[in-house]
Amino acid sequence: MVEAMQRRASEGTSMKSFNSIIMKFPKIDESLRNCKTIFEQFDEDSNGTIEPEELKSCFQKMEMSFSEEEISDLFEACDINENMGMKFNEFIVLLCLVYLLKEDPTARHAKSKMGVPNLEATFEILVNAFVFLDKNRDGYVSKNEMVHAINETTTGERSSGRIAMKRFEEMDWDRNGMVTFKEFLFAFTRWIGIDDPEDEDDE
Q1: Looking at the chain, which terminus has fewer C-beta neighbours within 10 angstroms, N or C?
Q2: Mind telling me which InterPro entries this protein's record contains (predicted)?
C-alpha cells in the first residue's frame, strides 16, 4: 500500500489547500453513502458486518482476480476492531484500497459492476488529498507535514497549529507519529460522519 501511494505521489496532486479538501466533504459523503447498497448486497446474512467468506464471494461476483491470500490480507487490514466482521466504514476503506491497488483492466471492470457511478472520482479525491498532505512523498503523513499543509491554507492564524495537531491525532490510530493511507481513510469516514456508534466504545 505504501509503495502504491509513493507511485501515486510521484504523479503529483491537483489539491492546492486543505480547505479545498474540506469543500469536497459533502460530495464525498454522498458518494460513499451510496456504497451502502453494495455493502448490503455482500452482507448475505444481513447481520450488519461482512465476514471473510462473504468478502470472498463478493470478489468472485465482481470477477476480481484476487488470490485467497490477498483477500485475507485485505480483510485483516480493514477489520480494525479485529472482530472478524467488517462494518460499513471498514468496507469503504477496503473498496478504496482495492481501487488503489488494482489498476488493471479486471479492476476497472469490477468497479463498473459495483454500480456506483461517482465512486472512482471520489476515491481519486481521497488519494489526491493524501498525496497533498504527504509532502515528501514517502507514502506516510508526518505531524510536521500535517502542520505544514494546514498552515499553507490558514496563513497567520495562530489556531492552525492546534487544528493540525488535532486532525493528526485523529488520524494516527497506532500513535506511531506516521499516518498511512489506511489510517487517513478511517479518520476521513469519521470526519464526514460515516461511523458506527458501537465503535465509540473501542477507541
Answers
A1: C
A2: CML21-like, EF-hand-dom_pair, EF_Hand_1_Ca_BS, EF_hand_dom
